[in-house]
Design brief:
single chain, alpha/beta, two-stranded antiparallel sheet, 7 strands, about 35% helix, globular
Amino acid sequence: MAKHMRYRKPKRTRHGAAFWDKEYSQAEHLALSENASADLIKFVRWLERETKRTILNPTSSVLDCGCGNGRNLIMLAREFGMHGHGFDSSSAAIKEARRLSADQQLTYDVRSIAEPLPLPDASQQLALDMMTSHFLRQAEREQLRDEIYRVLKPGGYFFMKTFLKDDDLHTAQLLKERPGPEPGTYIHPVIGVPEYAYSEAELVAFLGERFIVHKTYASHKHKSKG
C-alpha cells in the first residue's frame, strides 16, 4: 500500500524592513500600540519640569529616528502642538503613521536612519531614537549620533531608549550562542539581523562624545527576571 507523505513548507523568514512591513500590516510577533511609549511620557514629564515648556511648545520641531507608526510624534503634537519629522525603513509603518497623523503638522518618509538626515543644521529642538539604532553597525551608529548632534539646536535634547546588557542573562546568552559580525552584537532570533547591546558605561561614553548626559534610568528590571 502506498503511503502519502505530507510535507509542510517551512515558514518564510523575513528580515529587516520586510519583517517590519509584515508586522505593521498584520502583527505576528509584536504587540504594536498606537499609544505613546510610557518611557517617552516619563521623559517628557521630566523635560517639562526642567525646561518649563521652552522645548515642548508649538514653535519646536521634533525628529523621530525610527518612528514606526508615529505614535510618539503624535503624542507630542497633540499635547504640546509640536511639529516634526519621522523616518522609518518600513513603508507599511510610514503609511500607518500618515493615516494616524492626518490632523497634525507631521511629515514622514521611508528612509534608513543609516543615511545622512535630510534636515538643516540646528533645526530641531528634540530628537528621539527609541529602540532603533541598536540595529545599525558601529560606523552607522556613530554617524547617526553625529547627525542628530548636527540637526539639534544648541540646548536641544536627545532622548534615546535602547537595550542595556548589564546583568541581563538573556542578552549574555544571545551574545554567546548567536554572535553577530561585530563585538557586542548578536543575531536577533526572530528578525534575523544583528543587534547591538550597550553596557550603561558604554552608552554614556558613546553619547558623551557629543552630548551632556543628564540622566539614565532602567525602564524594566531585567536582572530580577534573568
